[in-house]
Amino acid sequence: MPQERAPPERTVSEEAVPLYEETLSVGKRTVETGRLRITTVVREREETVEQDLSSEAVEVLRVPVGRPVDAAPEPRYEGDVLIVPILEEELVVTKRLVLKEELHIRKQTTRHTERVTETLRSEDAVVTRDDAARADAQRSETLPSQE
């Protein structure tokens, strides 16, 4: 059997190589190069100008109307007259007759018998006659009273 050879051992070593880079930094600063002094001077002069001006005058005429409306009317023009409606709310109270209720009255007749016991008094007249022919017999009559 032939002898086997082991592969040669390799050693790997790593080294870091630093890399450098330069950068440019740009900035600014305020540098005083001089000073200024500012003053103001007032000058006066007169100047005449002309300007056309207009003015308007209005006449307001109040016209009483006094009619109820369902909705507010819009302002309107009649010729060169602007008519602006003026509205107010008016309280309206009405009185009306209302049938509130009815009374229904029914008459009922009921019959029944009651038994009542009372003592009643009446007078009777007793008349006695004396008869000569019948001296030995006496007779009595009872007459009821009339009401």
Automatic annotation (TrEMBL):
Coiled coil: none
Domain of life (superkingdom): Bacteria
Domain DUF2382 residue range list: 18-127
Compositional bias segments (type: Basic and acidic residues): 109-139
Region (Disordered): 109-147
Annotated Pfam families: DUF2382
Stated name of the protein: YsnF/AvaK domain-containing protein
